[in-house]
Request: fold
Amino acid sequence: MTIDHPAQPARTEPAGRSAQPALSLIGAAKTFGPVVALADGTIQIEAGEIHALVGENGAGKSTLVKILAGLYTPDAGDFTLAGKPVAFRGVADSKAAGISVIYQEPTLFPDLTVAENIFIGRQPKNGLGLISTGAMRKAARALFDRLGVQIDPDRVAEGLSIADQQIIEIAKAISLDAKVLIMDEPTAALSGVEVDRLFQVARSLRDAGAGIMFISHRFEEVFALCDRITVMRDGRYIATHVTNETSVDAIVRQMVGRDIAALFPKQDAEIGDAVLTVDGLSRAGVFSDISFTVRSGEIVALAGLVGAGRTEVARAVFGIDPYDTGRVTLDGKPVKAGDPQAAIDAGMGFVPEDRRKQGLVMDLSVARNATLTLRHRLARFGIISGRREREAAEEWSARLQVKTGSQEYAVSTLSGGNQQKVVLAKWLATEPTFLIVDEPTRGIDVGTKSEVHRLISELAGRGIAILMISSELPEVLGMADRVLVMHEGRITAELTREEATPETVMHAATGSLEGAR
Amino acid sequence: MTDTTTKPGGGGPVTVATERTTNPIASIVRLRELPVTVALVVLVLVTYLANPLFLSAQGVKDLLLNATIMIILAVGQALVIITRNVDLSVGSILGLVAFATGTMFATMPQLPIIAVFAIAMLLGAVLGAINGALVTIAKVPALVITLGTLYIYRGLNNAWAGGTQYFADDRPDAFGNLSVDTVLGFPVITLIAILVVVVVAVYMAGARSGRDLYAIGSDPDAAKLFGIPVGRRVFLAFLANGLLAGLAGVLYASRFNSVGATTGSGMELDVVAAAVVGGVAIFGGSGSVAGAAIGAILLTTITSALTALRVDKFWQQAIVGILILAAIIIDRVASLRTAKKLRMSEARDV
Reply:
């Protein structure tokens, strides 16, 4: 494939763009010892545009962001802001130059108030030179009014939803008078309504003249929101497109450098008897009257907005959290409430939403992680045999095509997609009859995404009953045999594969249509 | 507190923001310093009812004198703990500085008292700065670093002092009188401690760099991402803690009859206990120096109270332990309740 990759800064500029973009990074390179994290990082962001940066995981997007944020110093490359060359010595320099970064993992201080989080380091002062909490509260409120949101400036940041945390980060950026706002996968943990609110805010900032860089794995969002798209692959700049002059297929081809299989290859599986039956499950304030079944070979998707109670239901079914009333039965036998070990023994597996915090022990080796659930079976007289551990891990890693140099490497060295495979391996090794997967492809690049989908589909093919929680509609519609939609802690719709469309699911998820069928 | 602000119209959207009335009682109940304050008041009241002599003029003076040194140490320790670090070497710093103070008076009697204070605090600051430099440069947990310097500073003290001890006779009367003379009923050294509490408390609440310490303890990685100079702030927190431990060392030499090789041994754990009981979260990010100071008063008062109540002195340590656990449990229960409340409100909001 030929790629549009001029070596000179003077590349094909879309019409109507100024000669001096708000931010321009050309040919930036960054190596860590022998590892080349970025070979040719190039991006130009104009004032008043939303510019998408897309690429698979490992394409160098995060390294590029960290250079812009002042966290990394590039080894080579030209970096200019509004035509003036800059060299950042640290984050403070980048901030002072008008660049604000909103990271995927929120970076608020949980113990400080919302207002203080916005103004930390530059709190307004009173006549005595001391911080004025009153002025700070007022300023925070003014920012929230401008953004059209209601967040109490006096509450601590701990416990805020990710969507609210992002709004606070944006408020912070506005108060810093940011000229360039970088959003690194801001929608990964958001759902419909929250994404809309974020987009509204982004558009109004763009119209006010800010340059926005938007990183996302979700193409529908990229195409709905962004004016231009820059593609990266393997640490290199590939091309920049004007959004209305390109297509998803073209972008995906450039990202992966090859044609990839269909995104959501759910294979037909023979659907058998009910494996899991949940009957009238309730927990005060969290969810109520949840009843459903999952049959062998079936993938049931649990859709809904973030906060609708999907993960909470899954956690209760698996015994991590308690429930007040209701019953869970697996293969006809009741499962003890509030006891994950009992759930595992009964044949359940749980692939959690947050790989890093809940799915893996990041500092342990691949082998150790993959066999964590097997400790009892691998042990003889209570002592785990290292050889048997390795053998079991190798078998499962091979079956799942985990790409790692050695079973002994720490899991933290793997890419997100491969980490997810290790989590899957961990549970598959227990040979479950019922598996819960919570946001299985969150933050995973396109190529690996379809591999994870293929794996889940294969598992269903082997007769495992699967409950999949997902906020990505295409994933839900592509993978699920049946879709349960939750809204405010209740199941508001149960849709067959044929009935499930973006519209029916979204209506049920937002509660805007009674019994969407 | 309740007012309605209307932004002037024009280009922007006209919005009306209603200030949420914050219930003053509710915000007092949420105060992290509340449990320790209540415990202190109850302890003093119960002891007073059982033995009215406990709150006589002399009794109060003794309580304050006993608490003074611990208050200063607890304030310094709170600074460090709030940044998600800890300094276990303060007992050794205090010992070394107290012995240095004794040596100065014994060998250089012409030295003005104010100069002794300055030199002693400088010594403490240097010892604290060594801790700070090791923690921020070597990036080894402060627990390990300061455990090491605890022994090193104590070893230096041992080597220097040997069997030497300095007694009250070796120092000028004016210096000893700091612990005897009172102003408005407060011993002078207690007034110094109160001044320390006020200055540091105002700094922590009202200065940007003070708020940075909370941010660092709340999430060190986020603090780095935000551009807060984490290393410099943590270094200065250790330095300030060393300086305060140095001050405590001088005052120790004024207050107590003798200083020698073992002065201050084991105090570090009392200090950490005082801070934790006073509501300073051991993982940083929240708490206040005022709370730590009240914690110090509570712990030192228990000893006197138990004596006044004729409780066997050996129970004292067990009671301190129970207080530490109680402080942590109260904290945990409170945060679980908040989490539950948030969960409920979020479930409704979506």
Observations:
- The interface with chain A takes residues 5, 7, 12-13, 15, 17, 19-20, 22, 202, 205-208, 211-212, 214-215, 217-219, 221-229, 281, 285-286, 338-340, 342-344, 346-350 of chain B (CB under 8 Å).
- Residues 1-21 of chain B have pLDDT under 50 and may be disordered.
- The first strand of chain B starts at residue 4 and ends at 6.
- Residues 56-334 of chain B form a domain with the ABC transporter involved in vitamin B12 uptake, BtuC fold (CATH 1.10.3470).
